[in-house]
Design a protein that fits this description.
heterodimer, A: mainly beta, six-stranded mixed beta sheet, B: mainly beta, seven-stranded mixed beta sheet, four-stranded antiparallel beta sheet, 0% helix
């Protein structure tokens, strides 16, 4: 079964607004990663947060991790039309990495 | 660097045919994996390898075989294709077992 579950399944916002996506997972993890997928393309790594970290930033991205609740959030600030894509969280065990079903983000110009 | 290269990009098969999806990486990554992506299902892990000569099953291994004879290559074999294997297949690799994954551009397979 899939490890991570994203919420919401779809999100539509206006350019300039912030977008928040959530991820919940079931078992202990070493790290949690977020990926982006443009339509018809492969996934691209965005950010990795380790299990002993609570928050991490990268440009307009902010990721939080709450291991007690087994959840993470991805915040994209000041969104742009080019941010339109699907976003996936992935949790890493010892040797494999499992993905959730993703959040489809649409940013309207 | 080419990164992760998958071939073919598109393939149509008839039920019962066999084929191999090729995956090659030039980053000297020890870890490689295959995922399938279906609408509304996200990515599901088929098989993975932590190094040459070592493979293991993921979430949905049935109907697929893999081998890892070299560090660079990790082919995925469908021995007898079924319509349920219609999907987009992604190969990925990473240097460290806990590091970021690098993905190929995907192979879209249709089984009639």
């Amino acid at each position: 079964s899939q490890q991570g579950e994203e919420d919401p399944q779809a999100l539509s916002i206006q350019e300039g607004e912030n977008a928040t996506m959530n991820c919940s997972y079931k078992t202990s993890i070493n790290n949690l990663q977020w990926y982006r997928q443009n339509s018809g393309r492969g996934l691209v790594h965005l950010i990795l947060i380790r299990s002993n970290e609570r928050e991490k930033h990268s440009g307009r991205l902010r990721v939080t991790l709450d291991t007690s609740k087994k959840s993470s959030s991805l915040l994209i600030t000041a969104s742009r039309a080019a941010d339109t894509a699907s976003y996936f969280c992935a949790t890493g065990g010892n040797n494999d990495m499992r993905f959730g079903a993703g959040t489809r983000l649409t940013v309207k110009p | 660097n080419a990164g992760v290269t998958q071939t073919p990009k598109f393939q149509v098969l008839k039920t019962g045919q066999s084929m191999t999806l090729q995956c090659a990486q030039d980053m000297n990554h020890e870890y490689m994996s295959w995922y399938r992506q279906d609408p509304g299902m996200g990515l599901r892990l088929i098989h993975y390898s932590v190094g040459a000569g070592i493979t293991d099953q993921g979430e949905v291994p049935n109907g697929y075989n893999v081998s890892r004879s070299t560090t660079e290559d990790f082919p995925l074999r469908l021995l007898s294709a079924a319509p349920s294997q219609t999907s987009v297949y992604f190969c990925a690799s990473r240097f460290h077992w806990a590091g970021e994954l690098f993905f190929g551009e995907g192979s879209r397979l249709t089984v009639l």
